Amino acid sequence: xxMSHHSHSGEFCNHGENTLHEMVQAAFACKMEVFALTEHMPxxxxxxxxxxxxxxxxxxxxxxxxxxxFREATRxxxxxxxxxxxxxxxxxxxxxxxSKDWVNSLLSKYQFDLFxxxxxxxxxxxxxxxxxxxxxxxxxxxxxxxxxxxxYFDLQLEMLQALEPPIVGHFDVIRLQSNSQNxxxxxxxxxxxxxxxxxxxxxxxxxxxELNSAALRxxxxxxxxxxxxxxxxxxxxxxxxxxxDSHSIxxxxxxxxxxxxxxxxxxxxxxxxxxxxxxxxxxxxPGVSTKTVSLTELQARAFFG
Length: 305
Hints:
Helix content is 41%, strand content 17%. The strands form three sheets. A seven-stranded parallel β-sheet has the order 1-2-3-4-7-8-9. The protein has a two-stranded antiparallel ribbon with strand order 5-6. Helix 5 crosses helix 6 and helix 6 packs parallel to helix 7.
């Protein structure tokens, strides 16, 4: 059951490439069996990225773009008759407490199949966009990676408690622009305590961590989340799913061989995936539930052959 629960397209995301239709076609050609379309949520005016200011200069315009995404995503979902399930969702961006109102507004307006809970900003500054902004956020936090990591996981807990996302996106993406990309996070007591606290909360409400291969694509030695984090979540009987976080057709399924090897080495027995049917796991997403596929069976699928 090759799947990705996290993707973007250049049609509705300024730092992506290809149309949404092209992304779906490419995922099918790659023998994906579940492919989720999860565009970034609209954000407040002050949070627009530089490339957005030129093309979608207002928050209202960004909301119009997102509406276009949902319309096209649901059209593709309805028209699709191939042997690949298409899920329609959104990747939320938790920036400040008012982000909750934005997310709840989206959930009331659109009938999603799922959403991904992510943190891309700390102290309202982007932390995975580029090094310049990461350093700015780090300076605000106190000048060290350790302090910024602590603040990141505190903000992540705010998001988790407010929204209980069905999938938690790139759990430790804070590593990307840091000087501590591959460091064992148990080295920092305060950071590690926060990680364990957040994992316990996720496990408590039944959230799923994505094993996100984008970290490998961007040069990190391990995917998101790192192995020591995954091991702790396994002890809590937490579930994992697969995501490529693709932003173009060339990134669909990238490094999935390495992702599967990572999961196998850790001893993750099965992968969770979301499925549309008659059962409902979360009342916010009627008719959507989760299933599991063993790692052995997954490895035997055509995608990995």
